[in-house]
Amino acid sequence: MSVPVQEFQAQRFAKWWKDLGLRKLLAWQATILVSQMTTGYDESVVGSFQSMKPWVKDMGYPDSSRIGLITSIVFVGGFVGALVASPTADYFGRRVGMFVGSTLTFAGTIVQSAAQTAGMFIGGRFLIGFGISFTCVAGPSLLFELAHPAMRGTISSLFNVLWYVGSIIAAWTTFGTGYMSTSWSWRIPSLIQGVPALLVMMSVLCGLPESPRWLCANQRVEEAQQLLAKYHSNGNLHSALVIHEMEEIHILLEAEATVQKSGQNSWSVLYRSPANRKRIALVATIALLTLWNGQGVIAYYFSPILTSIGITSTPQQTGINGGLQVWNLLFSLAGALLADPIGRRTLWMISFVGMILANVPLTISSAMYAQHGYKGASYAVVIFLFLYDAAFNLANNPLLYCYPTELLPFAIRAKGLSVQVAVSQTALTVNQYVNPIALDSIGFYYYIFYLGMLILGTCIIFFTFPETKGKTEVELAALFADPKLDCADPITLEGMEAALGHDPNLCEKSAVVTKNEVSNSL
Question: Which residue ranges run through the membrane (predicted)?
Fold first, then answer.
């Protein structure tokens, strides 16, 4: 199936701002990205509520254990939601998963905003967490599966970058309403939290496209081809790009059908094959490494850290925190844009080595201030906090969902992301209760524990993380295949590598992909 190189590459690398189909596609994908703003908004706004007297009064003057429950209940909701988000996205479609998640989140914000008691507020936050898990499973899947091949890495990396947009909006919203003396000081920010969810609901109702892979898997092949043609090739059903994308989907689905016929079309598919055990182990590892690297201590306890080094005034802390959030957004965006040029594995390594290099002087500076009260040491702490976050956000933010989505083939993508969300919510709950105790008990020595975690994480990345940069979905699915396994029954796709941008000499080379090779990797 040879195709002219120039025709294919012209479609594959078309400038989106000059291409009507790509502009429409990116507009739809922007609504998927918006869903992650809710997560960043939520994790920032509750911390601000605790400094508002009307909120403290309306919640019945909660003690530290009740505040801990109010904060962590959203993670509990996320864990429970992760268990049912995958079946919804798999059986009813990614669009339905997005709609259900955004509807639950919107309902949760209404309950939270109208809360008259702490119990009602907690119930609303549980619903928010429950809904967020749906959008965190269906959102990255739909984003990846809809994306134009030339933009798949970048657009997938942007999903979690919007976390900081939500966080910044929450910070400035609560800063503005914090001067109010009534319960509207916290009810207004709570209501605003529902806006992203409402936008996602409206986008689904207005025609957000479904995943072409899900359509093909559910015998809606013609609809999938029309969708790819409309958004990837301006309506040309017979373009080289659309033909290759449909062939790629066909190879994967045929291989996955072989797996499903063997009785593995259930959660057990995640652990029955060595390849999938490796994938799920990596997905769970990513969830833990991104949360147990010390950055969470900075994110959730930034104010106490500043207080411990002598920066106590509210204007100083507010200014530094506001600057840090913008700083984080910029480095997350930089990481998303670098994911394709330098590769995912390289970006992970740079991020973790950078955090190690920031952790050591941060610990030393904190110790010098704690033991001797040096003013210069306090300023050094702030500088290295910023550098720590910069290194963290280069990979841990943009690749949190992008990298697992690439590692997981279509058949187990939603299930695998559900596992990631469940592990993340569990780790966040543990952090919520362990971090304050550790900081109070051992102070800056707690950073040393995370230095060990960073070194361990760097070793894990170096020895186990595969590079996914520039690979087709067929190649990604075959990443974990055992080369010793029988690879008979070949499905030949001439020029697969070349057509997808790996080899300019399309007519001189062809690639052979086997159904069994892909099946053995599932």
Answer: 67-84, 96-115, 127-146, 158-180, 186-208, 280-302, 346-370, 376-395, 444-465
